[in-house]
Amino acid sequence: MTVVTRFAPSPTGFLHIGGARTALYNWLYAKHTGGKFLLRIEDTDRERSTPEAVEAIFDGLNWLGLTADEEPTFQFARRDRHAEVALELIKAGKAYYCYCSPEELQEMREKARSEGQPMKYNGTWRDRDPSDAPQGVKPVVRLKAPQDGDAVISDQVQGDVRVANDQLDDYVILRGDGTPTYMLSVVVDDHDMGITHVIRGDDHLTNAFRQKALYDAMGWVVPTFAHIPLIHGPDGAKLSKRHGALGVEAYRDEMGFLPEAVNNYLLRLGWGHGDEEIISQEQAIEWFDVKDVGKGASRFDFAKLTNLNGVYLRQADDERLANDIAPRIAKQIGVDAIDAAQKEILIKGMSGLKERAKTLIELAESSVFYVTDGVTSFNEKAQSLIDGAPEGLFAELAKELDTLEIWTEENVDASVRNIAEKLDLKLGKVAQPLRAVLTGSNSSPGIFDVMIVLGKSQTLKRIRKFDAQ
């Protein structure tokens, strides 16, 4: 059997970070088993589904590298097929028309509530003669659910879960206007798409019992279910916007995370492989099995994600990082785009820059000084270092460095040390003010590395701005 998994988001908003983890688990399980990963857009809520949300889902999945193996299926386009199945069930005597009015249904709910019973449909029209149907009423179609015994779901995460069939009711599969309900659409689509494994949040566990009844009624093979625990915030409450329940694009654009770091972090939210923390995509595909996902909810921790992102930044290709931060830097310095020469400087300096950053935001901010013609601003500590520099330091530095014919790290290192010795200063008393005038900050990559990346002309230009001090 070829494993076929699916991710089936509703395009009513962004791709939630919890949805991204569900997609990741489905994608990994398909790859681990040599199967297929499919995408279905559940766009039957026409009022809330938008093209922008569909694009946001595609964009988020593509950024994470979770691409489907076939073209996506759009659920709304299959509504005729869904209705067709409902009519098949009526013909087979496994579904029926229900003519109850909204008032009658409300009366049922109130009666059940007053008696302390589950609020469910009482089967009024289950075996009633259709000739009793009132005139002018558009009936719904209800599934004839089993009434005796138990329904059992052998869940790969939750284990065997059992529910008494008398706790379930004959739910609606086709509305009075002929449109299918979510329960019907999901089952028909999963069957027609050949889905073998349904991996989704455990908030859908109760749906699985209702859906199993529909599979059984049609004589279809029930897929293997795996209901994964939801992600909680650090306080143990359900993940919300205040915790970080944002769209995937926010993690990319507003927070500056790398997709491989996000995938690694989401993978570890509920699943693990020994003490391994840094798990490559290749390792994840080799090791991941949905049955190893824990039953308990995981807590989202931004600090851990940020630290993990720092690890991936340090491992990332320098040119790739330069391309990633180029638009951010352009925005900071007020230009449409940085030019090729500026990009080369960024690449040249990246090995030193990325060691000190944990996000692309930090990396971009710490890189700006490399691509400007001179330093445009100084932080408070840098300004203090410049103001407190020994008298004549910058003039001596400019004079000494200007004599260098070969601009190498070894030579600039020697020159700066010569100045420190000449002025009877510790190296730090020279290097720290020098760092401030070259970078505008009291913190940067190694100062000699910075001087090599900037080059002789730009280094001297920045020092000479202060050589009167």
TrEMBL record:
Query: Which positions bind ATP?
Result: 241
GO terms in the biological process aspect are: glutamyl-tRNA aminoacylation
User: Reaction catalysed?
Assistant: tRNA(Glu) + L-glutamate + ATP = L-glutamyl-tRNA(Glu) + AMP + diphosphate
User: What positions does the domain Aminoacyl-tRNA synthetase class I anticodon-binding occupy?
Assistant: 333-465
Q: Which residues form the Glutamyl/glutaminyl-tRNA synthetase class Ib catalytic domain?
A: 3-306
Q: Name one Pfam family in it.
A: Anticodon_2
Q: Which family does it belong to?
A: Belongs to the class-I aminoacyl-tRNA synthetase family. Glutamate--tRNA ligase type 1 subfamily.
Q: What is this protein's name? A: Glutamate--tRNA ligase
Q: Which organism is it from?
A: Thalassospira alkalitolerans
Q: Which gene encodes it?
A: gltX
